[in-house]
Write a structure and sequence with these properties.
Strand 5 and strand 6 form a beta hairpin. The chain starts with a strand and ends with a strand. The strands form three sheets. The protein has a four-stranded antiparallel sheet, with no helix packed on it. Strands 1-2-7 form a three-stranded antiparallel sheet, with no helix packed on it. A two-stranded antiparallel sheet has the order 5-6. It is 0% helix and 57% strand. The protein has 136 residues and is mainly beta. The protein has a single domain, classed as Immunoglobulin-like (Sandwich). The protein has no helices and nine strands.
Length: 136
C-alpha cells in the first residue's frame, strides 16, 4: 500500500497545509478495489502534550449520492489518485498559528458507509500510508 503513492506535504500558511499524492507503483487508481476503500488525508494543529487544537480532513474516494425512490447509489465524483498527482489543501483553523501541524494519509477499509456523510462511516481497518510534521 505504502509504495502505491509518493506523498509530500508543505505548509501554505500559518493554518493551511498542502498534501500531494503522486502515483508511484500502482497501474490503476488508488485506492482501488471494492467501493468501500478510501484515503483519509488529515491534519492536526498540535499544542502542549500533543493536544489536538484544530483539525481538518478530506477523503479521496468514489463519491456517491442517494437517489430517493431509486435503488442504489449514483457516482457523482471520483477524486482518487489516478495518472496525475492530487493535491489536498487543509486548513486547521486559527489554532494552527505558531503550532506544529501533524499530517497523515491513511488507507481505510469502510465496513459500512452510514449514509453519505463520509465522517460517519464505520471503519473496519486502516493502514498509515504516510505521515509527518510541519514546523510553525
Amino acid at each position: 500500500m505504502r509504495s502505491a503513492v509518493a506523498v509530500t506535504a508543505r505548509r501554505l500558511s500559518a493554518t493551511r497545509v498542502a498534501v500531494t499524492l503522486a502515483p508511484a507503483n500502482a497501474g490503476h487508481a488508488f485506492p482501488t478495489g471494492d467501493l468501500f476503500r478510501r484515503l483519509e488525508v488529515s491534519a492536526e494543529a498540535l499544542g502542549p502534550d500533543e493536544l489536538v487544537l484544530g483539525q481538518a480532513e478530506r477523503y479521496l474516494t468514489r463519491h456517491f449520492a442517494l437517489r430517493p425512490g431509486v435503488i442504489g447509489r449514483k457516482l457523482v465524483a471520483d477524486d482518487r489518485v489516478h495518472a496525475e498527482p492530487v493535491t489536498v489543501e487543509l486548513d486547521v483553523g486559527a489554532a494552527g498559528e505558531a503550532r506544529t501541524i501533524a499530517w497523515q494519509v491513511a488507507y481505510q477499509r469502510v465496513a459500512h458507509p452510514n449514509g453519505v456523510d463520509l465522517r460517519a462511516a464505520e471503519i473496519e481497518g486502516e493502514i498509515r500510508v504516510a505521515s509527518g510534521r510541519l514546523a510553525p
